[in-house]
Design a protein that fits this description.
262 residues, mainly alpha, Annexin V, domain 1, TIM Barrel, 3-stranded parallel sheet, two-stranded antiparallel sheet, 5 strands, 52% helix, elongated, Aldolase_TIM, EutB_dom_2_sf, Ethanolamine transporter, ethanolamine ammonia-lyase activity, EutB
C-alpha cells in the first residue's frame, strides 16, 4: 500500500508495485492516512526476524517517546509536523520514536511544499573539518571522476571545480579502480591539493568501505569514510556490507585521528 500511495515513479512501475490509476493512488493515500503509527511499527516492510536493518531500526526506537505517539494516525503526524507551534527541536525529539515506515508514510501524504515547510524547521549540522547544515549554508560536493582514475586528470578536474567555488562539502571521487593502491594514490593527490591551497573542506574516495579502511590502515590521508547503504539486509548484502562495518570504520577513523561523522 505504501508503494501505491507514492507519486508516480518509473521504478515502481517497472517493479509492478505502483498504483495502476490516479484513483487507486488517492485511495491508497486515504487508507494510509488512517493507519496508526503502532500499525506501521507492528508491520515493518521486512520482518524483524528476517532482516538486520529492520532489527537495527526497531531496537533503536525510544520506547518512551513511541508510547506518546503510537496511537497517532499518519495524518495526525503530518498535521503535527506542519503545525506552526511545532519546532525543529520537537521534531528531532519525536524522530527518536519513529521507524522508517512511519517516516515514509507521512512523506507520502505531503506535497512538495509540505515537505519544504516541515524540513525548514530542522537544522541538522555535521562537522568534520568544516561544518555544514547551518542556516544560509549551501555546501556542495566536488566529484572529479576520471575514466582511468589518473591522478593528473583528477587534479585538473578538481582545479576546474574549485574555480567555480565548488567542493566546500567534500572533494569526493567515485573510483573506477577499487584497489587499495589506486585509492591511496587519489587520496594522496586530494590531500596535496587541499594542503597546498589550505582549502577548508574534506576529502574522500568513495570506494567500498573495506577498501577505504585498508587504505587508512596503510597510512592514506582521508577525512571521512563513506559507504552507501540500502534499506534492507539483502540490499546491503549486494553491496557486500553488514551492520558491523559502521562501527569498524568509526574505530579506524578515530584511531588514525581522521574525522568521521555518519
Amino acid at each position: 500500500m505504501q508503494n501505491k500511495a507514492s507519486e508516480f515513479r518509473s521504478g515502481d512501475e517497472l517493479a509492478g508495485v505502483s498504483a495502476s490509476t490516479a484513483e487507486e493512488r488517492v485511495a491508497a493515500k486515504a487508507v494510509l492516512a488512517e493507519l496508526t503509527l503502532a500499525d506501521l511499527r507492528n508491520n515493518p516492510a521486512v520482518p524483524y526476524e528476517e532482516d538486520e536493518v529492520t532489527r537495527i531500526i526497531q531496537d533503536a526506537v525510544n520506547e518512551k517517546i513511541f508510547g506518546e505517539i503510537k496511537n497517532w494516525t499518519v495524518s495526525e503526524l503530518r498535521e503535527w509536523i506542519l503545525d506552526s507551534h511545532t519546532t525543529g527541536d520537537d521534531i528531532k525529539r519525536i524522530s527518536k520514536g519513529l521507524t522508517s515506515e512511519m517516516v515514509a508514510a507521512v512523506a507520502k501524504l505531503m506535497s512538495n511544499m509540505d515537505l519544504i515547510q516541515g524540513a525548514s524547521k530542522i537544522r541538522i549540522k555535521k562537522f568534520c573539518n568544516t561544518e555544514i547544515g547551518g542556516e544560509g549554508i549551501l555546501a556542495t560536493r566536488l566529484q572529479p571522476n576520471h575514466t582511468t582514475d589518473d591522478p593528473d586528470g583528477i587534479m585538473l578536474s578538481t582545479y576546474e571545480g574549485l574555480s567555480f567555488g565548488q567542493g566546500d562539502a567534500l572533494l569526493g571521487l567515485n573510483p573506477v579502480d577499487d584497489s587499495v593502491d589506486s585509492v591511496m594514490r587519489v587520496l594522496q593527490r586530494f590531500h596535496e591539493i587541499k594542503t597546498k591551497w589550505q582549502i577548508p573542506t574534506q576529502i574522500c574516495v568513495l570506494a567500498h568501505v573495506t577498501t577505504q579502511m585498508e587504505a587508512v590502515r596503510r597510512g592514506a590521508p582521508t577525512d571521512l569514510i563513506f559507504q552507501s547503504i540500502a534499506g534492507s539486509q539483502k540490499g546491503n548484502e549486494a553491496f557486500g556490507i553488514t551492520g558491523g562495518y559502521d562501527s569498524g570504520s568509526k574505530r579506524i577513523g578515530f584511531k588514525t585521528r581522521n574525522s568521521y561523522r555518519a
